[in-house]
Amino acid sequence: MSTSPIFLQLALQRANFHLAINITVPPQGITVLFGPSGSGKTTVLRCIAGLEHASGRIAIGNEVWQDDQRQIFVPTWQRELGFVFQEASLFEHLDVRRNLEFGLNRLRIDRQAARGALDDAIDLLGIGSLLDRSTVNLSGGEKQRVAIARALVTQPKILLLDEPLASLDVARRKEILPWLERLHRELQIPVIYVTHSLDELARLADHVVMLDQGRVSAIGNLQAICTHPVMATAAGDEAGVVIESRIQRIDHDFHLAEVSFGNGTLWVRDGGIEAGAPIRLRILARDVSLATSAHSSSTIQNLIPGAIESITNEAHASQALVTVRCGEAMLLSRVTHRALAALQLHTGSPVWCQVKSAALID
Amino acid sequence: MTPSADSGHAILLTLQLAVITMLILLLLATPLAWWLARTSSKWRGVIIAMITLPLVLPPTVLGFYILLSLGPDGWVGTLTQSLGLGLLSFSFTGLVIGSVIFSLPFAVYPILYAFEMLGSRPLEVAATLRAKPWDAFFSVALPLAKPGLLTAAVLTFAHTVGEFGVVLMIGGDIPGETRVVATQIFGYVEAMEYEAAHRLAALMVAFSFVMLIALTRLRKRAGTALP
After folding, report:
1. pTM for this prediction
2. For residues B92 and B15, is the Cβ–Cβ distance under 8 A?
3. Which of A212, B13, B80, B196: disulfide with A217, CB 3.0–4.6 Å?
């Protein structure tokens, strides 16, 4: 595993599109390239893979894959990467096993190491039972799992995923997401994941690069990005925060799980996850209201104390997005300016956050 | 010679011609179609038009020009003579050259179509799986274009068996050298040997029918369930 960051400096001029980015990406975890279609995220990914040629410089740790100043452009087949396309794009003339072995046969490693790499990828994606099947009659989710495994078999230095769920229906997405989450927990290599889905971002991202019309509009770790005004605008009604935490205990009588958060705890629906397990929670700004005192007679039981960090105006003049610091963590709350005025809330005011609902997403 | 021995010679020569033409065309048309499918060259249109010409020209016109160029004053003829190969007109080799040109569109089009249907994605996938461009061509593009290659093979074979005008022009219907089934039938008819003509003609009909059925079957198998 490399410890030097991934360095991307790319410029590309096309008829209706201008790409210009200059970023470094951490060498571990999942970095999500997020943005609307046409923002250039897929182009960036294809440039990293050498499938497209923008001018600039690309370095993965100590390996330089492109450097125009030194006239370096490593062809795709010499870049140690795994690429998963939007459509699984399995080779239809080969069965599942031969698809998996395609990259393996082109590596210069001994048989035992090859065997190990193959078995690891098969286990990680749970496709052991599909090996002798033809690729034609696999389901969309199965195809995509095979495609991911096929990319991992080559033991890449980096895994690139281009909207791997976008061509699947909702049911298939639900089927494959747990495998991606497992990838997230177990994979040692950096992953760059292109998507325009907030749900996928909330589930999988460690770091986020937001792209808009070929430029970086925001960059940072997941928590920082969630409360970033650019993200709040892009997410609209779906604006909110993602909290990484652990389940403290389960209340079996009321079917609730207690999650430590900020200066307090939150009760969420018990989703069958054991106490102690790491989880992600998504709390939308529209589900958080603010109070100046802790009511005891409300049906909203989740009350978190905090202080207002910032207040930003929303697209509609009546609305404000309030960032509340609750210890280490942040919450977003969407309220009206009128309410803020009536309660005399300003930056720095102590408040109680009433969390109406928080969804477990891991 | 008995009529049946004549027919036998003609059939053998026809099959030889068809097999050789088919093999040459597959070797020639595959790289040509590959280039056409992937190039953005301004010459693409001109070259496609040239390949398509044999499809629209009367075979006699094509045969006439090929004959002229192979002849003693033609550019090919001058070349072959200076190389000490003599003249190719009225020879089996000349016939092969004519057949290759005549059936070129029947080889290029199915393969070109197959490559275009393929798109660039399978090759991109192959590259991300460490396959060099040549490797990707042989291990991904060619196997996936198999239905197109099969169609090209069958069409060029059948088309060569069925050609008449070009063969007559270039070959001159010399028994044992350039007399194929189609010209043999013509010879029988001119000599009023209708029964011999009938036998050979019926054989051609049956052969063509079987070829077309085989083509459909092959395509169906290659298209759906691959081993």
Report:
1. 0.86
2. no
3. A212
